[in-house]
């Protein structure tokens, strides 16, 4: 994957969808895009880490600080995917996915609608 732009200041460019998978993991690409934009000062009116980011990271067994440091050290999709696969267990991925698809599906639906992906 080449990745997405991480400058959301134009209001027309968005982080990748939370439903877009990296392997089995939902949300990785979205939180990665937002973390990179936050680090670059181009996040606009998005929040990183938002409550959903925190909930997913917690289920993955990561802190926002750990993930932010990993984003700096592994700035490409391939690098962060490799780092993620070495750090996060299949059980953590399943727990986060279940939380997203059962408890937070309305949030994901709203994000998709707001960003024109519905």
Any descriptors?
118 residues; mainly alpha; 6 helices; 58% helix; 0% strand
What does this structure look like?
The chain is mainly α and 118 residues long. Helix content is 58%, strand content 0%. It has a domain at 41-114. The protein contains six helices and no strands. The two termini are 22 Å apart. The model has no long low-confidence stretch (mean pLDDT 94).
What is this structure's SSE topology?
Blueprint: H1 28-40, H2 51-60, H3 64-73, H4 77-87, H5 90-103, H6 105-114
Give a brief outline of the structure.
The protein has 118 residues and is mainly alpha-helical. The chain is built from 6 helices and no strands.
Helix content estimate? 55-70%
- Rg, rounded, reads 13 Å
Spans of at least 5 consecutive residues whose pLDDT stays below 50 are none
Mean pLDDT: 94
Overall geometry: globular
SSE ordering: HHHHHH
Structural class: mainly alpha
Biggest sheet features: none
**What proportion of the residues form beta strands (DSSP E)?**
under 5%
Counting DSSP E segments of at least 2 residues, the number of strands comes to: 0
Distance between the termini: 22 Å
What is the number of helices?
6
């Amino acid at each position: 994957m080449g990745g997405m732009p991480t400058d959301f200041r134009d209001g027309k460019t968005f982080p990748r969808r939370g439903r877009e998978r990296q392997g089995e993991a939902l949300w990785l690409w979205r939180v990665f895009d937002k973390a990179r934009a936050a680090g670059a000062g181009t996040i606009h009116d998005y929040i990183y880490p938002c409550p959903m980011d925190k909930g997913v990271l917690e289920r993955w067994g990561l802190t926002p600080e750990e993930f932010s440091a990993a984003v700096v050290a592994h700035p490409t999709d391939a690098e962060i995917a490799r780092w993620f696969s070495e750090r996060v267990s299949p059980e953590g991925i399943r727990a986060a996915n279940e939380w997203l698809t059962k408890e937070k599906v309305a949030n994901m639906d709203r994000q998709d609608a707001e960003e024109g992906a519905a």
